[in-house]
Write a structure and sequence with these properties.
By secondary structure, the chain is of the alpha/beta class. 35% of the residues lie in helices and 25% in strands.
């Protein structure tokens, strides 16, 4: 799947979210824990955390005895990660053009970051390239149809849906077709006390950045009240359902 992505704008969006990212990152943590369960065991490995954010899972890998390199597009995210001493090395860079030699890492880990690639195939190829033979690439990403509550609510108001397009599972499979890759589908549903809290969680983790800009989207009090009326909810609260793909690539 090809898409036009302004990487500088993405970095700025995540940079703005950096200081409050962890308080809104429940999805990233739940998804990452499920991805971590798919990792083969190993000791004293060289691990790349590609798209590390504030380094929550960099720290997890480091606490398990591994040497971690934390990489992110956003300099501010990296500063947050380094301030918490979650890794051995910190590098600003792009998953689609990793600044590392071939076969540099035993594990390449990328939790909810490759959806920001212009070319998913290129991003996965780069992760594969810098992984040593016998190693593993572990990644997670969004699948088409993620956040149906957002799409449904905005459509009910006759407004453009403020979501970036995401690939289907077949498109993700084709992006890694030359590798030994397994894909696992997962839906995680989180609940919030009101629609504003749900929207703040999207903004707080940077994922509300739109590749094509926000033309025509005005969230004033009246629009928020309208969203409250049409947003899907149950006894838990206002819902965000994330359709996710967990990928495991065995490096041959």
């Amino acid at each position: 799947m090809l898409q036009t992505v302004d990487k500088q704008a993405v970095a700025v969006a995540f940079g703005r979210a950096a200081t409050c990212y962890n308080q809104h990152a429940e999805l990233q943590r739940q998804c990452g824990e499920r991805l971590m369960a798919l990792a083969r065991s190993g000791s004293a490995m060289q691990v790349l955390d590609a798209g590390c954010g504030t380094g929550w899972f960099s720290q997890r890998w480091q606490q398990n005895g591994h040497r971690v390199t934390a990489l992110d597009l956003s300099a501010e995210m990296l500063r947050q990660a380094e301030a918490s001493a979650v890794a051995t090395d910190y590098r600003q860079g792009d998953i689609e053009a990793l600044p590392f030699a071939d076969a540099s890492f035993d594990r390449c880990w990328s939790n909810l970051a490759v959806q920001w690639c212009s070319d998913l195939k290129q991003g996965l190829s780069e992760l594969y390239r810098v992984t040593r033979p016998g190693g593993q690439v572990l990644f997670s990403t969004l699948e088409a149809g993620a956040l149906p509550e957002v799409a449904s609510a905005w459509r009910a108001l006759g407004a453009v849906v403020p979501l970036n397009p995401q690939p289907t599972v077949d498109e993700i499979a084709r992006a890694g077709c030359k590798t030994a890759m397994q894909l696992h589908r997962l839906t995680l549903t989180l609940a919030y006390p009101d629609a504003l809290s749900a929207l703040r969680s999207l903004k707080g983790t940077g994922v509300s950045h739109l590749h094509q800009g926000r033309a025509g989207i005005v969230l004033n009090r009246q629009r928020l009240e309208q969203l409250e009326q049409v947003w899907s909810r149950d006894e838990r609260g206002y819902l965000l359902s994330w359709k996710l793909i967990l990928g495991v690539i065995e490096r041959e």
